[in-house]
Amino acid sequence: MNERGHCTSGGCPETSTNGETVSISVAYNHPLLQLKRALPWAALVEVMTRRGAAAGTNTDGRSGLPWDVALYVPLMVFMVVKHLHARDMEAYLADNGVARVFIGRQADPRPQIRDHSNIARAYTALGKDGVEEINPWMLHVARDCGFADVSLLSSDTTAQEWPMGSPNEPGILRGLAQRCGRALMQLKPRAVVGVDTALAHVQTILKTVKAHHLFAKRQAAKRQVLTRLLTAVGPLVVQTRRLARGLGARRDRVTQNARTTLKTMHEVAKRLIPQIVQWITTGGVATGKIVHAGVTQARAIVRHKAGKAVEVGLPYLLSRLGGGYVVGTLIRGGIDESKLPLQALAGYRAIFGAPATPA
Fold first, then answer.
1. What percent of the residues of the chain are helix, what percent strand, and what percent coil, each to the nearest 5?
2. I want to staple 118 with a disulfide (CB 3.0 to 4.6 A). Which of 53, 90, 114, 151 is the partner?
3. Residue 7 lies in a domain
4. Rounded-to-integer distance, Cα 12 and Cα 294, Å
């Protein structure tokens, strides 16, 4: 294993400037290596290859650098097991011998291990649904190895707070306009009719948002600028909808990516604009209010709790097995507490089989 020098050259005489090759012994019965031997790798490769292909990674032999399945599949599993972010994962691989063995890069003195940006892109390609798809395999292995007691199940609802500042309506609309603008800039070199008009609408929205932040200080002024902002978003949605319809026959990847972004933003606008209109007219936050144009799963959850009437985050149903293993399910739509016990049981049986009935 090749290790970099851990101090300034000359300040640590017992090491060389270029680093030294060291030998580290890893116990055969280490828990992570037991996990590696027990996991169904063929099934995990199938899931991650399918998810990666759907996200546009090069898994089908196209020209360019291919997606290294043998590296990224154990890497993503390790991230899920250790619950590490991309930067932490990069640092962990640089320092931890067990991690190198787990991902199969222990024999190469100069292993090709991607940096945090490539790791983050691979994790994004896997997606939250992909993580939820591979988690049951982990739970089966934990049960088979005697770590998880699946006869016990305890469930509760919670809101996973979203790591963002207090969202505001102009900021959300700005995010929508910026995403449309980036898609339109991809189409501009392809001489698509109507792109310049749509880009002009984007610039109008961005200027109006800036005016809202800089000059609208009182509540009445803020609502007036927000109303003007909504009237500018409407023409952008109409114009980009026409563009998306006209791009249906084009096959190149850049055009299709831009078209997908525009269609996604149309769906966001369809739900977001009525919610903003409700805020302007009533002053109340809509249940399930979208708080981010790019991460539409994050919602404003109206709780009516003392001191915190609205929470901003992801509504989850968390289920805990005996032994401390936790599986989370994102709650789609409204939260009906009376139906959640049955939903928790259905999720449990989806993992461990229909006959399984926990205490």
1. 55, 15, 30
2. 114
3. no
4. 48
| Co-location of 123 and 192 in the same domain | no
Q: What is the C-alpha separation between 321 and 319, in angstroms, rounded?
A: 7
Strands 308-322, 326-330: pairing is antiparallel
280 plus 208 within the same structural domain: yes
| Per-residue confidence (pLDDT) for residue 249, from 0 to 100 | 66
- Structural contact between residues 123 and 79, judged by C-beta atoms closer than 8 angstroms: yes
Q: What is the mean pLDDT of residues 223-246?
A: 89
DSSP state of 149: E
Would you place residue 262 in the very low, low, confident or very high pLDDT band (cuts 50, 70, 90)?
very high
**How many domains are there within the chain?**
3
Per-residue pLDDT tens digits for 117-134: 888 888 888 887 788 788
Give the separation between CA 24 and CA 75, rounded to whole angstroms. 20
pLDDT at 216: 85
Nearest to 299, CA basis, from 338, 328, 323, 335: 335
For residues 282 and 322, state if they share a domain: no
Helices vs. strands in the chain: H and E counts, helices first: 11, 7
Domain check: are 320 and 342 in the same one?
yes
Q: What is the DSSP annotation of 273-302?
A: HHHHHHHHHH--PPTTEE--SS-TT-EEEE
Look at residue 174 in the predicted model and tell me its pLDDT. Answer: 92
Per-residue pLDDT, averaged over 4-11, amounts to 35
pTM above 0.70, yes or no: no
Domain end: 232, 257, 287, which one? 287
Whole domain around residue 78: which residue ranges?
Answer: 20-147
Angle value at C-alpha 351, between 347 and 357, nearest 5 degrees: 70
What average pLDDT does range 240-266 have in this prediction? 84
Q: Is residue 239 part of a domain?
A: yes
| pLDDT tens-digit readout, 274-312 | 999 998 888 888 878 888 888 777 777 777 666 677 777
13 domain-assigned: no
DSSP 158-214: EEEE-SS----HHHHHHHHHHHHHHHHHHHGGGT-TTHHHHHHHHHHHHHHHHHHHH
